[in-house]
Amino acid sequence: MLEAKSIDLHYGAAQALRGVSLRAALGEVTCVLGRNGVGKTSLLRALVGQHPVSSGTVEWEDADITKLKPYERARRGIAYVPQGREIFPLLTVEENLKTGFAPLRRAERDIPDDVFSLFPVLKDMLHRRGGDLSGGQQQQLAIGRALVMRPRLLLLDEPTEGIQPSIIKDIGRAITYLRSLGEIAIVLVEQYFDFARDLGDRFAVMDRGSVVYSCTKVDMDEVALRRAISL
Question: Alpha carbon of 202 to those of 25, 121, 187, 213, 217: distances in Å?
Answer without folding.
Answer: 10, 31, 9, 11, 6
